[in-house]
Amino acid sequence: MKKLGLLLAWLLTISLPARAWTILSDGHVDGFGIGYHDGHLELHVHEDETDTEYEPHEVIFLVPPSVQYTVPANPLYAFLGNPGDPIWILPQVQIPGVLFLGSSAHEVPAGIFASPLRVELANVNGPGHFALYQTDGFGFPTVLMNTRDGIDSSDHYLIPVGGHMHFNWAFSAEGLYEVTIVASGVRLSDGSPEATDPTAFYFWVGDPELIPEPGTAALVLLGLASAASLRRRSV
Amino acid sequence: MNIATQSKQLVFGCLVATLLARTVCVGAVIFSQGHVHPEVHRNVNELEVAVHDHDNDEEYEADEVLFFVTDAHKTTVPSNPLFSFLGSPGSPVWITPQTQQSGKLFMGLGASELNASDWLSPITIELVGFSGPGNFFLYQTDSFGNPTLHMRTDDGVSPSDAVSIPAGSHDHWNFAFTQPGQYLITLQASGTNSSSVFMQSELATFDFQVSNLVPEPSTALLLAVGGTLIWRLRRVARTARSTIGWSSPRESTR
Question: Cβ A27–B169 below 8 Å, yes or no?
Answer without folding.
Answer: yes
